[in-house]
Amino acid sequence: MAAAKKKPDIDRIWLKSYPESVPAEIEPLQFSSVAELLTSSCQRFADRPAYTCMGKTLSYREVEGLSGDFAAWLQSRNLSKGDRVAMMVPNVLQYPVAVAGILRAGLVVVNMAFDEETGIIVYGPEIVSRGFVFETETGHLLRDAECVILEVVEDLPPETKNRVDQIRKKVQTALRQYFYYTIKRRPMILPFLLEV
Questions:
Q1: Segments forming the whole domain that contains residue 83
Q2: Are 145 and 175 in contact (CB under 8 A)?
Q3: Is 172 within the bounds of a domain?
Q4: Is 14 helix (H, G, I), strand (E, B) or coil?
């Protein structure tokens, strides 16, 4: 049997911009979760800039502290490991902090983006799990949840007044109902919407 051919790096053109010290691949088993990777990186690069937006820069130390505070707040809301949090946020500094906090709390992130003019979904919904749902056993729950979100969006035409707010509220309600019906959980869902 012939060995499988390695895909050329032409599909990964961004690798050309990596400094020599940045590997093209990371060891997948080095961290047991994305949250563990985030925590390790925040500690390793504590005093380096992590994110910059609109003239404000957060260090990795600040990201670790803020995301830890947000994770603690989420956990104080009686959320359980694997509960979903919908993230629909514009490109702002709060986004990476919120995602890190959600993952550190053991919750699941749902990402979506809409075209501001047409109202068409340009990205997502994408649900990121920290290991609560395993593809081989119950991975269908996340795929089904994505379908629930798409149904909500499709039911509201792009010309609907205050569409973003309506989608936010309806996604929140629909996912709460879906997860209660399927797994008997009542997750707190914090939807944020990105319009591009």
A1: 32-195
A2: yes
A3: yes
A4: helix
